[in-house]
Amino acid sequence: MHIRSPVKPMLATTVDRVPPPQSCPGGCRYEPKFDGFRAVAIVDEAGAVHLSSRRRVRFNDAFPEVVTAVRERVPPGTVVDGEIVRWGPDGRLDFGALQRRHVAGRRRGELARAEPCHYVVFDVLESDGADLRPEPLRERRLVLEALLGDEPPGALVVVTPQTPDVEEARIWFDALAGQGIEGLVVKDADGPYLEGRRRWWKVKRRVTAEAVVGGVTGTRQAPESLILGRYDAEGRLRVVARTTPLAPAARTGLAAVLHHAGPDHPWPPELPAGFAGGPYGAHPPIRYVRTEPEAVVEFSGDAAVEGGRWRHAVRYVRLRTDLSPAQVPAFGTVP
């Protein structure tokens, strides 16, 4: 085999609109963007499966049912790239189920039976002794469909849908949002697989919503980002999101309306990373300045909402002086 150890997956750059077909030199190919864990699967000549994350961390122990399914469906001497996902009972993607595998320890086998995950494959890097990374996507796709296109009912390893039709892709963009699909990934049909390079595009469905400012990073006089909250049914202010860095004009405008919090502020001096984007324990605690929860802002976020919180950083849109904190949607409300 040409590939015997984990590779750096090819990546995508975020764009705000669905690119038209002529945006790609060889014509665009559109695929749904699944909300899961990126994973590369190497099946060596002996049939052993090596499943690794985007950062080349071993996934075999966390997702044993995926390893078994790959061994059964993918021929020896093959390397594929895809996304590990979990569909919940309501038909939506359940990212929380994936996160539970990291902390489950001995319970991983039990969770694999109770909450089985799927491996959605969208590329093939090697097959039958041929290194396919230099080949155009359109050729790699034909190989992938020949390998995995005949999916038996209930298969845990499936091929992602793909279309050259931008109108069909826009239908997917709208219709699949209810299942937790984040948006679209757009690829050049003539493009090779470039490890670690951002040569694909991704466009995420975004919605606007409102929240209360409960804190800032930086200083109150020069806020760098906002920590946002919403009140739950018991009247507790819960963290829901953290914004991307603020523009200079936004910093000036917000500094004029934000005030230092009094001693009864409900949040601790530091927040775990998972309370304002990202997995719990993945980063050091967030140091921030607490502010009085009286200013309401509008923000733009993607579809990755888990347990009432936006996992990815949101974008500040504007100050909502026409709304009071009591008029902000309750914690847990799906936008």
TrEMBL record:
The lineage of its organism: Bacteria, Bacillati, Actinomycetota, Actinomycetes, Streptosporangiales. PROSITE patterns: DNA_LIGASE_A3. PANTHER family: DNA LIGASE 1, DNA LIGASE 1/3 FAMILY MEMBER. Belongs to the ATP-dependent DNA ligase family. Residues 119-236 form the ATP-dependent DNA ligase family profile domain. Pfam families: DNA_ligase_A_M (PF01068). Signal peptide: none annotated. It catalyses: ATP + (deoxyribonucleotide)n-3'-hydroxyl + 5'-phospho-(deoxyribonucleotide)m = (deoxyribonucleotide)n+m + AMP + diphosphate. This is ATP-dependent DNA ligase. One of its GO terms (molecular function) is ligase activity. InterPro entries: ATP-dep_DNA_ligase (IPR050191), DNA_ligase_ATP-dep_cent (IPR012310), NA-bd_OB-fold (IPR012340), OBF_LigC-like (IPR044117). The keyword Ligase applies. It comes from Actinomadura monticuli.
